[in-house]
Amino acid sequence: MCQELADRVDNIGSGSIHAISTYLGGCTGYQVFTRVHLFLHTDQVLKAMRESDSPKPAIFAMSNPTNNAECTAADAFKHAGENIVFASGSPFTNVDLGNGKVGHVNQANNMYLFPGIGLGTLLSGAYFITDGMLQAAAECLASYTTDEEVQNGILYPSINSIGHITAEVGAAVLQAAVAEELAEGHGDIGPRELMHMSKEETVQHVRRNMWYPIYSPLVHEK
């Protein structure tokens, strides 16, 4: 089965592998989509990706925890080449490629999108999440990464900006719901108020409804 998948990579010149097998070296139960996704891979498939038509082959080993990842970051760069873009569901350290080069590891964590999607949907009052709302969230996140960073293998912004990103993603989702006439409002803010909010006002509205951890001291200070 692994050899068959490797052969398909060779035949269609796929530029992307998205693996969700939930075990190391998984190579069963895959589906093939030309130049879009290939599920489950081993070293054979990674080596086939080296000959991809894409100038920047993408390999996403999405399963977690770490011991269930379809491949390690080191194996991906070793077998598929230094020019890949690598992301994983589990954390891996960046790979030293020698000569001062670094193979960047991107942890594709749902924290970048899920909180914003959830809060934006809640505040919009929409009863379901549309493809347009998800597209708005994805495009918002993508806007934080430059073309130069992508060329260097960096797919996601710094985790230090996660609070800011969540507010922006939430606002993008909310505005998409308004544009699709799905927003019914939440609490004291109705659909009319949402409709007349600017982007900046929508972001501030989301920020006001975010939860911020404030911890009380547990030890009495003398």
Automatic annotation (TrEMBL):
InterPro entries: Malic_NAD-bd (IPR012302), NAD(P)-bd_dom_sf (IPR036291)
Pfam families hit by this protein: Malic_M
Record domain Malic enzyme NAD-binding: where: 6-178
Protein name per its UniProtKB record: NAD-dependent malic enzyme 2, mitochondrial-like
